[in-house]
Amino acid sequence: MIQDPVLAEAPRDERLRENEPHDRSAPKAIRILLPVWGDAFVGQFLDHSLPTLLAPGNIPALAQTLPTRFVFLSRARDEAAIRAHPAGRHLAQVSEVEFAPIDDLIASGNHSTTITLAFARGVRAAGPEMLDTCFFFLVADYIMADGSLAAVLAHMQEGASAVQVGNFQVDEATAERWLQERLAGAGTSLALTPREVMRWALGCMHPLTAANIVNFPLCHNLEANRLLWRVDADTLIGRFYLLHMICIRPEVTDFVVGSSCDYSFVPEMCPSANVVTIADSDDYLVVEVQPTGHESRVRPLRAWWRTTILALLAVGAAAAVYWPLLRVYFFADDFVCLLAIEDQGFARFVLQVFGGHILLVRNLVFYLSAALFGFRPEPYYATALLMHLVNVWLLFRVVHAFTDDAALAALGATAWGTSPLCVGTLGWYAVFGHVLATTIMLVVLGALARRASSGTIPARTVAGWAVLLLAGTTCFGVGIGVAIAFPLAVVLLAPGALRDRRVLAIVLGLAPAVVAFYFGYRWISALVEPLSLIEAVVLRTGMRNFGTIVTMVGHTLAFATSGIILGFLFVPAGYPGTQSHLAVAGAVLAVAVLCVIDGEARRRCLALLALSAGALGIIALGRANFYEAIHFSPQTLANQLRYYYAALAPLAVIGCLVLDRARRAVRVPGSAVLAAWLALAGWGFARSSWHVDERDLFRAYTQGQLRLIDAAIDREPAGADVRIPNQRAAPILLGPILRPVDFPGWVGFFVLRYPENVVRGRRMLFVESDAALLGALRVPEKHHRLHDLLVPP
Questions:
Q1: What is the value of pTM for the model shown?
Q2: What counts of helices (H) and strands (E) characterise the chain?
Q3: What whole-number distance in Å separates Cα of residue 559 and Cα of residue 555?
Q4: Predicted confidence (pLDDT) per residue in 460-499, tens digit
């Protein structure tokens, strides 16, 4: 039962009085208008909705009463598929069928505007005959009870100028099975009685519908346009403040559409307010089958219990896999950075460039961490783990925004959050900037995915994204690649936003701004500290051989694709091999098919691929030619796991887009796909020998060196000078690139352990026999502690 709402009194139109509403002749024709476009929506309409419209009491009843024309408002290329479909052929036997292309009206992510403009065009196409025509306005996801359209026409024949109705949604995940069972064997016409449709609908209500029930205690809708009261198991009463205009016979020809059709059509086309509202589901009943997450943004947190649980599942899985990070020890650049903080001071450390990176944000975070945590690794890696879990949650939101399926969002976030390829970044604190750059990428990508559906994005919002992305360039080098690729993502995901010239200027100016900012920062850094030889070499060799860069990008993309698909079943040491070849070939084929059959998915895949390629491309630009010069093969470079953290995330989203389309095609709920994937991934994890390297050897070595230094201190009496030969650190601790000038051995360990040069009353001196090293480090204005600690023999 639907309670008739209060209708606002509309002003009487004085512009045209061809027909007074209550004195009009009977209608002479019917036009049924249906906007539908895109392969997925066209297929859903033909398979699910159209058979219920072809029930005897719906379109056939209209066609038997008045000349009826069914008008498809669609893309030009959709016509062939619709005409060829069995239900489409059945429709052509019942009613005249017309196709009116609306390619020029379709705006990505702004369906409401497209539908309104398409409906208005369909009405105006009738010309003066519109005044004698009943226009039925249908939506492609309607499941309609038999007799509904006949009931609407009866009111129109009795003199009404418009009929309004209320609808509600059912949850696709729970409703699909019953509907498929009824469609099986029904052919191209499915007659459902109102009572059986209502019993089905009450058993699988969408969370959005449940949130509108005033006596349902678990959740409520903060922006309700209807209120429902569940009387008992079989009865629902509704108060609708926004109704759908199922049928209108215009009273005027020069109407103006200034807002969405549900708001504007009735008052504009029927100024007399001669409107009937059908209030009984036995007369008219339509339900809309919607994904679980449909319009989730308008539901409060209490209504997101399923989404929240699935998000926590992804976060919990990532925490379980990467919990050993809390026991990881420092390595290589960690020691160099910690020493620089203690020895060189704030300005020199924060502004320094390193390995081609500009690291303002990362260095600020590192400096603050050192001030808080000192030389204890556990808090540093706890921070890395915490930020990783935040990123898992952010990726969940990104996938949810793209697929509208919380189960697939959990799958994508879990696949990325537990990926063994992430360990190269998470297990090395000096690379923590990579994690921060990924956080910024996911924040901006998620905002873009959610905003893209509105069609317009405020310039100030895009400017904020640009600022965040510029900050990301100073977290780690991958942030540069992401920022340069981001404009392409905007063009593909939200082309309508570029109609605003300010947005267009920001988007077009971002990449040049990133390049200018990068070189400007390096120039400022050189004013504080001249760039080292290695910095000059990295920059000069970067573009020496473009083919080498492309080769590395190809290998890293293939490696990342294999890793995100195979998870713990992937054997990095076997790359490239049969395993990776099959994974990449399968991925390319699946994405290619998706891109061919679905234009919107194609734009999304290309945007995400651009971000992933941008993250890997900037690494190749900075490393491919340099490492080729020292004879590293592309396969060896691909196995550097610290390269993949950011690039894997967009690939995970692409995988979820493929799974979403596939599971819809075979009508499998997302929760079933998630359960199957969790079982396979869990099996792979259980049989895998993968583990987080906690660097016990480096911990033992460092602690051993510190004990030797302590023993040397305690051998001397209080008040004496302690002179200790400055021994070099083991090469394995620093890796192949770092030199003694970066971390000069025992004196470096001492600075990290003790905040002062006097320990237990003894002044420390480290004897260094390398004159060149002494000359480089005994510079008071640069090395605040080493210049006092190091002495010649």
A1: 0.72
A2: 34, 19
A3: 6
A4: 999 999 999 999 999 999 999 999 999 999 999 998 888 8
